[in-house]
Amino acid sequence: MPTEDIEALDRDDMARLKAGQDAALSSLMERHAAAVFRFLYRMLGDEEDARDLAQETFARVYRSRESFRPEHAFGNWLLTIAGNLARNRMRWRIRHPTVPLEPADESANSSLHDVLPADTPPPDCELQAEERNAAVRHAVWQLPEDLREAIVLCEWQDLAVAEAARIIGTTPKAVESRLYRARRLLREQLDQWL
After folding, report:
1. Nearest-angstrom CA–CA distance, 112 and 126
2. Distance between CA 177 and CA 182 in Å, rounded?
3. Could you give the percent of the chain with pLDDT greater than 70?
4. 140: closest CA among 111, 176, 182, 98?
């Protein structure tokens, strides 16, 4: 569906939501829940936190429905809410670090040969791609919060720099600077994969 059509549907649903038709929230969630979850997961690196904050994002949309301005893109407003929740969660994690009570899972350390039948060749290509993807995700999660947010919005969410700047609440030039610094750090961390 073209972006203009989605934005028109979003504006209509927000108008219905403001008018007291709560079912409009379900329509918004159907269109945007997956994108919000992916964004939050990429920001936080934790599926449970991403799921919780995705629900909280839509709860905030409902509570803040009167403050939505139809001349702005709903998707950007939605990601702004989700981004603020993600930043708050990351700050909370810093103040409340967790230590696992149980030792690491022994089965996670098992050899690939123990898992595959003897006549199955090891999937080297798939394994290498999975390792590379895991290394990229880990490297992105290790970036400082402001750099990670710029990379997630521009590279993974495929937003323009100007849109990312509106969501983050900064200038396009600042986003470009963050992207440059983030890419440089990622190149250094991922040197073996490049």
Report:
1. 13
2. 9
3. 83
4. 182
157 three-state secondary structure: coil
Q: How many domains does the chain have?
A: 2
- Condensed to tens digits (0 to 9), the pLDDT of residues 1-13 reads 677 788 899 999 9
Structure tokens at 150: 């710029």
Q: DSSP letter at 104?
A: P
User: What is the Cα–Cα distance from 151 to 179, expressed in whole angstroms?
Assistant: 6
The first and second tokens of residue 35, run together, are 């994108």
- CA–CA distance, 193 with 4 (Å, rounded to integer): 39
DSSP-derived letter for residue 155 is: I
Specify the 3-state DSSP secondary structure of 22.
coil
For 152, which DSSP code? Answer: I
Q: What are phi and psi of 105, to 5 degrees?
A: -65, 120
Kindly report the CATH number assigned to the domain that includes residue 57. 1.10.1740.10
Question: pLDDT per residue over 64-106, tens digit each?
Answer: 999 999 888 999 999 999 999 999 998 887 787 665 545 444 4
Calculate Rg over the CA atoms of the chain.
20
Q: How many CB atoms are located within 10 Å of the residue 22 CB?
A: 10
Do the Cβ atoms of 171 and 143 come closer than 8 Å? no
150 and 83, same structural domain?
no
Show the domain range for 145. Answer: 120-188
| Whether the Cβ atoms of residue 28 and residue 10 lie closer than 8 Å to each other | yes
* In a domain? residue 112: no
